[in-house]
Every structure is written in structure tokens, then in C-alpha cells.
Design brief:
Elements: H1 3-15, H2 18-24, H3 28-90, H4 94-175, H5 184-234
Helix pairs in contact: 1-3, 1-4, 2-3, 3-4
Length: 245
């Protein structure tokens, strides 16, 4: 996996707008599940690639540190050889002094060569360090995005369950709506009302029949009074009236 491909995948995933993807998805839950899987897999791949890149950087850093140590050692050897040459020359041993001066020059040449190698590696070392830092930042961004995805998925599932429960409650309430004439309760109420109306009708009929019976009793009373007065007339008496003279 090249650095460019790692950067590309990390940048693409980090820039992804989760809310926009959800709005465009036919099945948001399936889309989020797939995104979570993709992010998890890509994070695993990125971690492996970044670990390899970091490993190479650490090797380069270690080699550079060893080169710096080697350069310092060559410098110390050059200094020791130069001092030895000065001591020998002070005693008149010019030949041996020249030999140690030559050794000092060799050591200084090795020191300069090693320092040049370090200078040549430093740009690559700096670039590699920047790459690793960017990869780490990108990886952290992917992990943050993954947590956002998981949170969004959990929120969506909770909202879906809540909506489902609300729909069940609404359906249950609707099925027993006391104001709905088409419901079972409404039909039963209509049946009760018809029974009450029938009972009221029967009661009214019964009341009418009773009134008629009382009226017939009053008529009988009037006839009896008439018969009594007629009998009084026939017996030669005066007509009887209810009012006094």
C-alpha cells in the first residue's frame, strides 16, 4: 500500500458527510452498518501501513543517531592523534609526530564524510517524520469518524424503535376510539342505543294503555251519575245537581 493511497483513503473517509449519506440512502441502517464495516476495515489497513512507515522512520532515526555517534568518535580520534603528534614533536620525534598527524587527518576525513551522510539523510528524515505525523492525525480522524458513525447508528436504531412503539400505541388507541362509530365499541354503543330506544317505545305504549283505562273509568262514573238523576226524576223528585240552589 503506497503512502498516496493511504492518504487518499483517509482523506476520502474523513471528508464523508454522514448526514448527507443517510439522507440519500434508501435504507439508512444498512448504509450505516456498511460504513461502520468499511471504516473498521480501513482503519485496520491504515494502522498496519502506518506501523510499517513508523518502523522505517525509527530505523532511519536510529541509523542517523549511530552516524552522529560515529562522527563524534572520529572527531575524538582525530583530537587524540593530533595531541599525540604534538607531544612527539615537542620531544623532537618529528617522524612519529607526522604519522599521528596523518592519522588525525584520516579521522577528520571520516568525520566529515559521516557528517555529510547525515546532512544528506536529514531532509528525508524530516519528510518521513511529517508523513508519519499526518498519517497519525488522519488515523485519529478516522477513529473519531468511526465513533460518530457508531453513535449515529445507535441514534437511528433508537429512533426507529421509538417510532415503531409510537405507531403501535397509535394503532391500539385508534382501535378503541370511543368517538369512532366504525370501531367495535362504537358499534356496540349503537346497539345499546337501539335497545334503549326500544325499551322507551314499549314504556310509552304501556303508559298510553294505562291512560286509556283511567279514561274509561271516568266515563263509567259519569254514566252512573246520569242514571241516578234519571231515577230521581222518574220518582217525582226534583232534579239533583251538584250545585246548591
Amino acid at each position: 500500500m503506497t503512502k498516496q493511497s493511504i492518504f487518499g483513503r483517509i482523506s476520502t473517509l474523513i471528508r464523508a458527510n454522514v448526514n448527507s449519506l443517510i439522507d440519500q440512502a434508501e435504507d439508512p441502517q444498512k448504509m450505516l452498518d456498511q460504513l461502520v464495516r468499511d471504516y473498521t476495515n480501513n482503519i485496520a489497513d491504515a494502522e498496519a501501513a502506518i506501523a510499517e512507515t513508523i518502523g522505517n522512520l525509527r530505523l532511519l532515526e536510529r541509523d542517523t543517531a549511530e552516524d552522529r555517534q560515529t562522527a563524534a568518535e572520529w572527531g575524538n580520534k582525530a583530537l587524540a592523534a593530533s595531541r599525540k603528534a604534538d607531544e612527539l614533536r615537542a620531544t623532537g620525534n618529528t617522524a612519529d609526530a607526522d604519522k599521528f598527524d596523518s592519522l588525525a587527518k584520516v579521522a577528520l576525513q571520516r568525520q566529515v564524510s559521516t557528517e555529510n551522510e547525515i546532512k544528506a539523510v536529514e531532509p528525508a528524515l524530516q519528510q518521513q517524520t511529517e508523513v508519519v505525523n499526518k498519517l497519525k492525525d488522519g488515523l485519529n480522524g478516522m477513529k473519531v469518524k468511526l465513533e460518530q458513525l457508531k453513535g449515529k447508528r445507535a441514534e437511528l436504531l433508537a429512533r426507529a424503535k421509538t417510532a415503531e412503539a409510537q405507531n403501535k400505541v397509535h394503532d391500539a388507541v385508534k382501535s378503541i376510539d370511543v368517538l369512532d362509530p366504525t370501531s367495535e365499541l362504537g358499534r356496540f354503543e349503537d346497539k345499546v342505543r337501539r335497545q334503549e330506544a326500544l325499551a322507551a317505545g314499549k314504556a310509552e305504549i304501556a303508559a298510553s294503555s294505562l291512560d286509556a283505562q283511567f279514561e274509561s273509568l271516568e266515563d263509567v262514573g259519569e254514566l252512573t251519575e246520569v242514571e241516578a238523576r234519571l231515577a230521581a226524576l222518574k220518582s217525582g223528585g226534583q232534579p239533583q245537581g251538584q250545585l246548591g240552589a
